[in-house]
């Protein structure tokens, strides 16, 4: 078993943990910086892998990826020549109780990923041991163990622990050798046709940049779908095309990264959406890993970072207050997270085009909701 850790490699038998790139070769050949076509305010630089691991530009750095040497169509032809290859990434922190469901879902895929990398981020509940046990003798699964990204922080997600662990995985593989990159949370169970159907969606729509399965969560004895905009690719079970992943900036190590990359994808002309026919079971209510109210406050802070306008935030707070427990307090926590982020001066996406684009989208959603409510009222 070969177990990779930050400090080195420990041989423990037959469990295959994927090898790091050969000496002198990194995820980006020779440790060179990735290709950039233009700089756009507000998008952080994507991970640049070196022999020592991922290196990131300062938080105020601005870069939006786009290949210099190939148009999107050229990239698609190249992808067709190499054949579809899927890299799946998962991060886990104290998720031992979900490991069996996670593995059962992935192992049941009618179209399995070509490589699956699971990063245990310093768990203390036996998660790593559970992951290693399930991955034994499966040569396309890599299990990495690293020390916690941030120690003694109440809300790990607020300090981008997930995206840091994802970049930790990317730094140990030639991820540009894959045509699609998937991000799967450790607390989900995907149906057997998850990857197969999403890959069909990419084949059918050349403009598709990212998609995902519709989340369902258990409430009492029933599984209910999570309400969301049709253009939102759920981050717990999301699949990117390689071109879109690069163009939208990769995994930014900041709060709201999985909203920012989705917006930039649409700004660049990619379509983003959820496949409502692919139902993914989310085994824990979204945003509650570090506490329900803390999670709602974190979502409010994300709204601040992404330039959500105050009117939308007020309406969203009211909606959260009546849809999620604890009733009322959830909405107040969301609103407080937004206001507190503003009072603390949390940096927002520093891009005027991004701000205008987000606000146009949200205003359109408000208008559409009002029109739908008017039609319902007229029919009543």
Task: Offer a quick outline of the entry.
This protein has 380 residues and is α/β, with parallel strands linked by helices. The protein has helices at residues 72-82, 99-107, 127-135, 161-170, 194-204, 242-247, 257-267, 292-305, 310-323, 329-344, 352-379, and strands at 2-5, 8-11, 36-38, 48-50, 53-55, 64-65, 86-92, 115-121, 141-146, 180-184, 188-189, 208-219, 222-225, 237-241, 271-282. Helix 8 crosses helix 10 (329-344).
| Mass-distribution shape | globular
**Fraction of helical residues:** 25-40%
Summed over residues and divided by their number, the pLDDT gives a mean of 82
Q: What structural class do you assign from the helix and strand content?
A: alpha/beta
Can you write the helix and strand succession as a string? EEEEEEHEHEHEHEEHEEEHHEHHHH
Q: Are there runs of 5+ residues with pLDDT below 50, and where?
A: 7-70
- Output the CATH class name of the largest domain: Alpha Beta
Largest sheet: 11 strands, mixed
Put simply, the count of helices is 11
Count up the domains: 2
CATH superfamily of the largest domain: Spore Coat Polysaccharide Biosynthesis Protein SpsA, Chain A
What's the total count of β strands? 15
Round the Cα radius of gyration to an integer and report it. 20 Å
What would the CATH topology of the largest domain be? Spore Coat Polysaccharide Biosynthesis Protein SpsA, Chain A
Proportion of strand residues: 15-25%
Distance between the termini: 65 Å
User: In the CATH hierarchy, what is the architecture of the largest domain at level 2?
Assistant: Alpha-Beta Complex
